[in-house]
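Progress against Task 2.4 (sequence-to-structure conversion) is shown through the following example record, which the project officer requested during the mid-term review.
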Amino acid sequence: MATSFEHYQHAPIVEAIINLAIQPHLDQTALVELEELGPKAGYGLKSPRIQVTGQITVGPQSAASATQVIDGYMFRSSNGQYVLQATLGGITLSRLPPYDRWEPFRNEARRIWQLFAGELGERRISHLGVRYINQLELPAGAKMERYLATYPEIAHEIPQIISNYFMRVEIPVTDPDGILVIQQGLLPSTNPETVRILLDDDLRFAIPGDVDAWALLEQARAMKNQVFESCLRPEAKEMLR
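Structure tokens generated for the chain above:
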């Protein structure tokens, strides 16, 4: 697999996400440490993260109930570039626009993880995910296949004008073993001369005990780049340069 990819001047990334999950999850007593993690990392603007669980009882007296519990906290960096979710199940770090490069993003995730492990005890990363959410601006009325190599193809006997669509595919991957989820669809656009396309690439891996999570994260990043490049035609790449 290629390890070097083009750095686009007009990269369409609206959110990049690294998820580092642990098993077993922490118990509710760890919420005190999680609440303090953001300030210790230099993050502010805290808000609780609410987990909702529901129960439905079927019978002569059917009923539904929901329970809300705090399972962690969300924090935002002072410059507004990062959002951190510190939860009983691990950490999720989001990088918001303008996205720069992988290395500072990865380094920030590792710094936060080291704080997390330092506060809550050394924990093994059991699952990781790398997700990049992109928004592509394409000329209105242009055929999708001019710009995208992955798109919904409509039978030629059916009218070809699409007012809305959403596509989701799940693809098992190997070496390392995991799953790739690609989501694509139309997004609202305020410019009548363009259409806005969602391209959401989400890679998820379970981590065997003998595998280094940070080495696997680098593999996931390379695989993510490969997926993104493969989904675009040369005309789309030219627009992003």
